[in-house]
Amino acid sequence: MNPHPGFHRHARRLLGVSGALCLTLAFSASTVFADDYHLGTQDKLTIRVVEWQTVEGAFRDWSSVSGDYTIGPSGNLSLPFVGETPAAGKTTAEIAEKIGKTLQDKFGLSDRPEASVEVAQYRPFYISGDIQAPGQYAYAPELTVLKAISIAGGMRRGADGARTERELITAEGSHAVLSDEQLRLMVTQIRIEAELAGKTEIAAPKAIAELPAVPAMIANETAIMASRQKKLTLRLQALDNLKGLLEREIVSLGQKSETQKRQIELARKELSGIGTLAQKGLVVNTRVLSAERSIAEMEGKILDLETAMLRAKQDISKAEQEAIDLKNDAESELAVERQKIVAELNAVTLKLGTQKGLIAEAGGTAPAIAGSQAISYVLVRKSGDGKAKDMAASEDTPVLPGDVLKVERSGAPLMQ
């Protein structure tokens, strides 16, 4: 028994409504911007194809075509019977229409198959910059910049936020200690240069003269310089006094030597007279011998005096050489000290540079100072011509599949 002819019309209306309902549900489940969303590489689609056969009055499910598909790197969608179909830049509705028309034309169907195209999984978005976990993430509808940052773990911190703050405090403390040491070394270098130049006062350069700690450092280095100069002066003065004593001793010895020479001269005259008398037999020979012995003794004393004078002159030379050595040693010690100070100053300067870098790094990640730094967002998005363009964004700016979000935090803690 054949059904009433009106049955087929009724069935077709019901099936048409049912098919439309299925398509409506499929599109509404995909995304709120399905009509405007343009597909791209790595988008995954769920496709179902159904054909209403008027002659049989029944639906035909194209199970060989239906299934899940991914848009390839070339931007094409490859389906059985349909072949390679350009999909990048198109909407799901355009893909559905293309599939139905291609199948109808290829198989000469009187009724066009209806295709339901749904985005099963959007292509990922990417996030980079000053965030906790940069990388690739699955896209979710209604994604904004703020949500994307939350998905990536928030703004970059250390492996442990508290540890990063401690590192910042430690780096700042080390920087302060090194800065103080650098200042002290600079003042010490100034004192050494002043000593080498024979100055008695220290003048700090304008660059550091107004720093609060400098006056005390200058006073301390001035005291050190005064003490060193006083010690050297006392030692030189002692040598000078010794030299004066020796010079006076030489004068005294010279006078004694002259006296002895006059006595010898008188004794020789006396001996000459005695010798004449002795030849005449008027004086005994023992008196002549006594006079000669006396002259010999006086000549010996002169030799002793001259030896003492030479010894005193040698001591004077030694005192003078010791004074020269003291001055040279003092200058040499200052030169060595200056070389050491310069080396230490260079080392401290390098360490300060390292600490500044650590402070900048810790300061750029420490939550305690995040509020004091400006955060900028840039979305890199491909336009219709396939070229990537940068666009400034805010926390509420929508992020689309395939976008690259760059997050940067500008500024760093100020360092003295």
Automatic annotation (TrEMBL):
Molecular function per GO: polysaccharide transmembrane transporter activity
Domain annotation Polysaccharide export protein N-terminal: ranges: 35-119
Keywords: Coiled coil, Signal
Record has Secreted as a keyword: no
Segments forming a coiled coil: 295-336
Residue stretches making up the AprE-like long alpha-helical hairpin domain: 174-354
Matching PANTHER family: POLYSACCHARIDE EXPORT PROTEIN GFCE-RELATED
Full protein name: Polysaccharide biosynthesis/export family protein
Organism: Aminobacter anthyllidis
